[in-house]
Amino acid sequence: MASDLVVGLELLGLSSPFVAIGVMRMKYLAGLSPEGRAGIRLARRAQRDWVQLALNLGLKWEEPTAGRREFAWLNNPQLPRGRTPRVEVPRFRAEPIEGGFVATVGTMHGVGLAEVQKQAEHLRNAWRCERVTVEQDVPGKLKIRALITDPLTVPYSPRKGATWA
Q1: Residue 126: which pLDDT band, with cuts at 50, 70 and 90?
Q2: Partner of 147 at 20 to 30 A CA spacing, among 9, 28, 42, 50?
Q3: 50-86 pLDDT, tens digit each
Q4: Are residues 25 and 105 both part of a single domain?
Q5: Which of 156, 35, 54, 28 lies closest to 100, judged by CA?
Q6: Residue 49: inside a domain
Q7: What pTM value is reported for the model?
């Protein structure tokens, strides 16, 4: 099916690496289960929204003495003078899994295992997940596992067409 589409596009003169990549992506996504596709969507959304979410939850580090100097007060004397603080958030990398994603988050001064575990409920609500767990993977790295459905509460049944034997 996908190869027929590529051949048809080549006949029309629309052959390019981008078309081939798009066809391979469609073929990959078509072979996934609905839970796998939902995991990909959730991982992309979490990766995209991480910086704003971390800032809102206080998972950040501010250095009040560093930053760039603001000269807006030259045009408006009512504005405060000085430097804006430099704000950093931990690095975040999400990898989709079946029914959710696993994220690797770096630690930094003031943002460690205890702080992220305190915010796990808020992360669960922001990502619209059923379950979020936070654990220390290696020193300096945290592993966040977000699952759309809790596998312990869903009754097990074989897939369509499969048998119990």
Answers
A1: very high
A2: 28
A3: 999 999 999 999 877 655 555 555 566 665 556 667 7
A4: no
A5: 35
A6: yes
A7: 0.69
